Write the structure tokens for this entry.
Amino acid sequence: MKKKVTLAIPLSWSHTWSPFFLSCLQMCLHASQFYQLAVYTSNTSLIDKMREVLGDEVLTTEPDYILWLDADQLYPMETIVKLAKHVDSGHLVVGGITPDKHTAKPMVYRFLNDAGSCAHDKAFEVGRGLVKVDAMGFGGIMMAREVLEKVRFPRFPRVWDEAMQSYVGEDFGFYNKCRKAGIEVWADTDLHYSHMVGTAVNVNRKPVCASWESLEAFGEKPKIVQEKDLVSP
């Protein structure tokens, strides 16, 4: 009997970009050789609410693993298989490296206080195998079912941090609850995701795309478009 992986995808929109869809599709086709797969989505106004709903729904499928995906990211084909092996080896919460949309630096963070506020670990280096971290981007995070069973509602709290004068993000809230429950979080620094980025266009501004990582993800050379490359009408 194949073990089951349930994918949990919060959707801010009712649709997804085709690069994400194709990335997810090839990942699932590859993993289906080894695992049963189920997919759950949620579409409400608030990300913390979507994650809470998905957390309850995925448990009804009695999965061995839960993989959280963000629809503005692209994932290598081997993501599910590689992360599931990490969970089997005792790394109960583990994910690959997501780059920041603006700086391309790894989205890995250090806790600053008991409230769960975090600071970006700007010195974090990749290419080091599995590394224990405090918190990281939540897209592409896999966990064992027992983690969601142990971390009780609200699993994704957005609490006010008086010292920082801001709300703590729901992903940091989850990682903070893992910390308090004694659950370690791991980053596979050799598994790299892509973050899709683009630029809005209006009648007063020429379209400029600083990078388009979906090209690289599907084997094409990354392209940089600058003002000088654009042809005026």
About this structure: The longest strand covers residues 185-192.
